[in-house]
Amino acid sequence: MTNLISVRHVTKKYSDRAVLDDISLDVPSGQVVGFVGVNGAGKTTTIRAILGLCALNTGEVILFGEPFSSTSNSDTAQRIKSNIGVVFDTCPFVTELPIKTIAAIMRNSYPEWDDHAFKTLLTQFGLTLNQKIKSLSRGMGMKLQVACALAHRPQLLIMDEATAGLDPMAREEVLDILRAYLAEDENRAVLLSSHITSDLEKIADRIVCIDSGRIIFDLEKDEITDMSGIVKCRSNEFEEIMSSDFIQATLATTKEGIRYTNHGYGIDFLVPDRFAFTKHFPEIVCERATIEGYMQLMLKGEIR
Amino acid sequence: MKAALFSEFATIKNIFLQMMLIYLIIGVIVGLSAGSVVVLAAAIGAMTPIMLLFTLSSYDEMNGWERFRASLPISRSSIVLARYANLLLCAVGMALIAALVGFLVAASAPYLGFLPEKTVIALSEQCDVQLLLLAAFAGCASILILATFMLPLVMRYGATKALRFIPVVVCIAFLAIVWFIPELENVPWIYSAIQFIANPSNTLLIAAIVALSIFTIYAASCFVAVKLYAQKEL
Q1: How far apart are CA A227 and CA A246, in angstroms?
Q2: How far apart, in whole angstroms, are the C-alpha atoms of residue B205 and residue B216?
Q3: Of A94, A108, A111, which is closest to B65 when you measure between CB atoms?
Q4: Which of A41, A130, A295, B167 could cross-link A37 (Cys pair, CB 3.0–4.6 Å)?
Q5: Domain region containing B37
């Protein structure tokens, strides 16, 4: 597996404020990497940094094995960008234009543009070439972006909130299209930034979480949703569990301690291996962790 | 470069006819009111570049189109070159159309019954292709000079922000001119240059020199804009 994206120790500052602070992440071929974080955490800035849309203070971005930045020469930039499909969080096209003009711009921009594939996607999404952008709803605009991103058969898809604004059926449709896109070629990869963590649970192989410009965790999705657990207990039970040999042994192997939140009526905490926990504490409720639950505990939880 | 040019032309294609019609209506009204097809040609020639500059810049800022376009396999320098080429070609094309419209209005003036006789006479006297071409291109050129100052700022900061800087630039330019003009009195060749310009037989030569100068300044402006746009955070 080769990395289609490698972000290495990237820092991006505005004035003295670091919006990206020494972040590193990889997107290997054949994988969907889910990129999560609260609003303003740095997801879009990371994507802009990857696409060479902003200058970096330190660090480097390597795409398809080649260093890439806002200062890359024209040939390198064109070669690399030809192989990337991009979906931003809002439909970026000029509202006065019809879809057929957007298609013509794409056809002239991407050497591998496939008109037939584009029209097929449009039909699938219920769009027509004569529709003007201003007549499209937010969801339809996002579908158009997805069609544009896929119709030149890129090796890498970078999607910033691509499923935002889509109804559940349309979201499922987009996820199916992404699955089909990945199934066509094992060397393809997707970086999918999303607030809708249920979508990532369905499609992602790896989850990267960013907060205040720093990577908080970068894990295989299965480590979160299959192995990890969220324990729900009362305060007195929590103290007992924390002082147990099992937790002490767990603490010895984890660097960061146990993340927990106190609700007043009880305490939730994260355990890295829910099966082992349930074996030791069969009477305590330990639920399978969701990406959202895991993220909330990692971002807002206290450390013990 | 081809993709950038296509993107520029495709973006304005749909509105260009609409814009052209509006400019023609305004130009004809202004021209007939002033009783001069020279004014008509100059007005249409001047309107196109400035309106196009702001229309295209507004489109750049609309819905993040500029950022999306930068993610396409089009280099930033191509985007800037295409903007300059688009503006120049549309301005020149529209100046030719302006001259043609001026000629048609002047030629048809005797048949327009609603015009006063003195206006018909004035318009008919201006039924001169060379005169109308010069008028249209003079209007076009004056705005292209303005565009040479505005475009690098608009490309770098966007139309909204650049509009805050442009009056400052214009004021500085004005102050520089005011400071420079008294100095010209001491330049010995300035009076012979004025006499040369005033001679009608030199008009075409002067037009060619002006066109070449504007093209040179425009190219220099484009070079600056490429450098500035390369640093823009999108």
Answers
A1: 16
A2: 16
A3: A94
A4: A41
A5: 2-230
Taking an 8 Å cut-off on Cβ atoms, the answer to whether A74 and B77 are in contact is: yes
Among candidate residues B50, B64, B71, the one with its CA nearest the CA of residue B151: B50
The string of DSSP letters for B34-86 reads: HT-HHHHHHHHHHHHHHHHHHHHHHHHHGGGHHHHHHHSS--HHHHHHHHHHH
**Helix or strand holding residue A72 (H, E):** none
What pTM does this model have? 0.86
CB atoms A108 and B233 under 8 Å: no
| Cα–Cα distance for residue pair B91/B94, rounded to 1 Å | 5
With a CB cutoff of 8 Å and minimum separation 6, the contacts of B21 are: none
Q: Which residue reads 């006479």 in tokens?
A: B121
Q: Which residues of B touch A51 (CB under 8 A)?
A: 70-71
Number of domains into which chain B is organized: 1
pLDDT digits (tens, 9 = 90+) for A131-155: 999 999 888 898 899 999 999 999 9
Interface touch B72/A110, C-beta < 8 Å: yes
**B1 touches A109 (CB < 8 A):** no
Answer yes or no: is the ipTM higher than 0.90: no
Distance separating alpha carbons of residues A194 and A47, to the nearest angstrom: 12
